[in-house]
Design goal:
The structure is a single chain. With 248 residues, this protein is α/β, with parallel strands linked by helices. It is built from twelve helices and eight strands. Strand 1, helix 1 and strand 2 form a beta-alpha-beta unit. The mean pLDDT is 97. Bound molecules: 2-phosphoglycolic acid. 2-phosphoglycolic acid binds next to strand 8. 2-phosphoglycolic acid (PGA) binds next to strand 8.
Amino acid sequence: MRKPLIAGNWKMFKTTAEAEAFAVEFKELYHGTDVGAAICAPFTQLLALKKAFEGTDVKLGAQNMHFEDEGAFTGEVSAGMLKEIGVDYCIIGHSERRQYFAETDETVNKKIIKAFSAGITPIMCIGEVLEERDAGKAFEVVKKQLEGGLLGISAGLAAKLVIAYEPVWAIGTGRNATPQQANEMCAFIRKLLEEMYTGEVSDEVVIQYGGSVKPANATDIMNMEEIDGALVGGASLKAKDFMEIINF
Ligand code: PGA
């Protein structure tokens, strides 16, 4: 049976010194949890965090990777390089990557395939923008992203996926989706997975909600039946807030 995952997405925040200070504070507060906890940090902070979290069950994630093993791709980092330093998860296709770095369902698909082959669990991000929700197209958009991103992925691998439903209008805006809206879309995604694969597969997939999750709304969101944890941006930058969300 799937276990919820609360993952922090630090985006382009925190120097190594700040990451280390976070780890010290966080470890003082953290005494294990029934849900999984992970921090997805900038590349240059991963090694320091790996060392800082040694001996705990806090997992480590990157925020992006390239889909080739190696090559002339200036500025890129491969899945193998991430695996070598002990990275467990990689966020793939975050809406900021889609918006600012031209990621498409096709690149998302290639990255998911590569992450799995390197032994890294992808946290696949999907979600509609405000105009799409207002136009009644949210479900259609999410379906297209899900199907495109998972093209050719076997049932065995799909069962190991983490999917983050992140409505773009709720990211960094302070305006979270209502727990009902989030639950409805997570249920829709699970149904689609059942149609694409099987009920056994859809039962295994961890489906998070992301978008303005904070201590004040974490309990309501996390208690929804179809939501298996959260991808947390801003509120994961403070050890105390992130801890409160983990202990929802
Ligand atoms: P937020 O970001 O929690 O700051 O809205 C979430 C995300 O982008 O993953």
